[in-house]
Amino acid sequence: MGETMAVTMLIGNSNDLNISILAPANTIASLLANQFAEASGLQVSALMYAGLILFAMTLVVNILAELIVLRVKQY
Predict the structure, then answer these.
(1) What distance in Å separates the CA atoms of residue 13 and residue 5, rounded to the nearest whole number?
(2) Which of 5, 27, 51, 68 is least surrounded by CB atoms within 10 angstroms?
(3) Residue 16: CB partners within 8 Å, gap ≥ 6?
(4) How confident is the model at residue 53 (pLDDT cuts 50, 70, 90)?
């Protein structure tokens, strides 16, 4: 949990949408860590959906990495 908080503070802990990649932002993991304890009702559903999106993105990245490793092993 400490790493999540460090990344949250480094990125800026801001929920504002901005076009610039240098503007303060928030990660999905830090969003979940910061808001889940106080969430209720529809906000819990939205946070669970964000967690599902994070899981799906992680799964896709891991599958692609495994395919790259298998392809490199063939040569």
Answers:
(1) 9
(2) 68
(3) 23, 24
(4) very high
